[in-house]
Design goal:
Structural class: alpha+beta
Radius of gyration: 28 Å
Number of helices: 22
Distance between the termini: 52 Å
Number of strands: 9
Shape: elongated
Strand order of the largest sheet: 3-2-4-1-5
Largest sheet: 5 strands, antiparallel
């Protein structure tokens, strides 16, 4: 039985893999257990790792450092790829207020943590760990640990301990802040739901379809190409044309001549609707189904872009209308319909709406791919190039006046920024960045599991002694860091910004990037307002959570 004893209690690769497997599997199983409807999820891996470390089970230092840092990189990079496409759009006018509230929570939390540091004398690394646990943000913990390692060459174990003791009450504090805001403002759920129903939010950049009748004598006799030249800064697509002379519907082309009382089926952005309607004539109550029924030779089909060679290409450069004789009316990307303008760059995973004959659509289908099997293969080349560039970028020293050590984005900040930029702009330079949601989540979950297991093992030795010798006070400090900023910004958001309560709960959950809190918020209403609020602030909040944790270590 010596072999078994060596395997369980010894060192080496086999022992390390066995230990990690047991910790991660047991942590994930326990993380599914709900107490008062709340579960800790993958974070329970950290607690199992602490228990294992407390009883003397460990791994070789070099191996545990590598697995911890590599897991962190995988986790952070997957997050960046996931939030990248929506990162910059979250700054649009509708999201500025919501993001300002969320970022306010981040900065108030950091200020609160520093005040507690100066009052109590707790060292900054430990306080950053407490703050990361209080705001339930694991990437922030990883970024801070990496920044500290860059400065001192060592990993501070009390940082992970502070995170572990503050995390459970952090989740409770987020939900409690939602309840307190509800009580302060005596929120009526029915009124909030009615307010959401009455509020029509229209995305000015999203594509919409209308039917128009030509009534402007100034454009009679002109082709669609000539008319579009009158407004070069406006994008619209004339999909189908009903001739007032022949009563026949045809597929509109740039050379189609318009006459008075002709009818048009037009795809355009909401912001251009009024201008284009005034130019052409008047809007008429003619639904899309009527355009289809009146001429059965034309069909509308949705084709998925799956060919890598099309990725990043401008729609106009493909000349699909000229070659195949069909119209591209809109492109659906991540659930949003975009106008199919000539300058729009296609990306893998886009769904293109095509109108034409069966034969012409078959040609477009062959050009774009429409093979879902291709999308199931992850683009590992892009992922590892991104990770390599991210590590290089994160290693560049940046001098900050008054700071003794140069600032580095590190193994967390560098890959995060590169992943965001790659996900957003990669297709424009020919990188295939599309990854299925399941593949992204797999990469993310493997990374966070490795990271938490390794952090727990290293923090386990001495954890009980630390908690029993003043560590319990960290729980209280963590609750203050959780609850106070959320309450303040919750009141500001409700009283001064007039944010709908259900949207506000999504912001509160998103400002701490906390899925259990979002689950609670979503249970309050059948509307998707909490999820929309969460998704709007999540990208920017995640970025600032990582950055603030690093800066606190470097500056203080």
């Amino acid at each position: 039985m010596n072999w078994f004893t060596d395997l369980v209690c010894g060192q080496g690769i086999a022992h390390s893999i066995l230990l990690l497997g047991v910790i991660i599997a047991l942590g994930l199983l326990l993380g599914k257990v709900k107490i008062a409807g709340i579960s800790l999820g993958a974070t329970f891996i950290l607690f199992v790792g602490i228990v294992m470390g407390h009883f003397g089970l460990s791994m070789e230092p070099v191996l545990i450092d590598f697995l911890r840092d590599f897991g962190l990189i995988l986790f952070i990079f997957a997050i960046g790829m996931r939030v990248g496409p929506g990162f910059f759009s979250s700054f649009r006018a509708g999201g500025i207020t919501l993001n300002a509230l969320a970022v306010g929570v981040v900065f108030l939390g950091a200020i609160t943590a520093l005040i507690i540091h100066f009052i109590t004398g707790i060292d900054v690394p430990t306080m950053v760990g407490i703050m990361s646990g209080a705001v339930t943000n694991t990437p922030g913990l990883g970024a801070a640990q990496q920044a500290l390692k860059e400065m001192t060459g060592e990993v501070n174990s009390t940082m992970a301990m502070g995170y572990a003791v503050a995390y459970p009450l952090g989740v409770i504090g987020i939900i409690l802040s939602m309840i307190v805001v509800k009580l302060i403002f005596k929120v009526d759920f029915k009124k909030e739901n009615d307010a959401i129903d009455a509020l029509v939010v229209e995305d000015a950049n999203a594509a919409t379809a209308i039917s128009l009748e030509v009534e402007n004598p100034a454009i009679a006799g002109k082709t669609i190409r000539e008319i579009k030249k009158l407004f070069p800064d406006r994008d619209f697509v004339v999909s189908r044309h009903w001739s007032s002379e022949t009563n026949v519907i045809t597929l509109a082309t740039p050379e189609t001549v318009l006459r008075l009382h002709d009818k048009l089926f037009v795809i355009l952005t909401a912001s251009d609707t009024e201008t284009i309607t005034a130019l052409l004539g008047k809007e008429i109550p003619m639904e899309r189904q009527q355009w289809v029924r009146q001429n059965s030779q034309f069909i509308n089909r949705r084709i998925v872009v799956t060919k890598p060679e099309v990725n990043g290409k401008r729609l106009g450069s493909l000349a699909l209308r000229r070659i195949y004789g069909c119209n591209i009316t809109r492109v659906n990307r991540s659930g949003v319909d975009l106008l199919a303008s000539r300058e729009l760059r296609l990306q893998l995973g886009d769904t293109v709406s095509v109108v034409g004959t069966e034969a012409s659509i078959a040609g477009v289908e062959d050009k774009l791919g429409n093979s879902m099997r291709r999308l199931y293969h992850p683009n590992l080349t892009t992922i590892f190039i991104g990770i390599a560039v991210g590590v290089l970028f994160g290693s560049i020293p940046i001098a900050i006046p008054g700071v003794p050590q140069p600032f580095k984005l590190g193994l967390a900040g560098g890959p995060l920024i590169i992943a965001i930029l790659l996900a957003k702009f990669g297709p424009k330079i020919g990188f295939a960045t599309y990854t299925t949601q399941s593949a992204n989540l797999m990469l993310s979950e493997i990374g966070i599991s490795l990271f938490l297991a390794c952090v727990g093992i290293k923090a386990g030795d001495g954890f009980v002694d630390t908690v029993s010798n003043g560590g319990l006070a960290w729980v209280g400090y963590g609750f203050i860091i959780t609850f106070l900023p959320l309450l303040i910004m919750g009141i500001v958001g409700r009283k001064f910004c007039k944010v709908n309560y259900f949207t506000l709960t999504g912001i509160i959950a998103g400002s701490h990037t906390d899925p259990p809190a979002l689950a609670y918020a979503s249970s309050l209403t059948a509307k998707d307002a909490p999820a929309v609020g969460y998704a709007t602030v999540y990208p920017l909040t995640m970025f600032f959570r990582v950055l603030i944790a690093e800066l606190m270590v470097l500056l203080f």
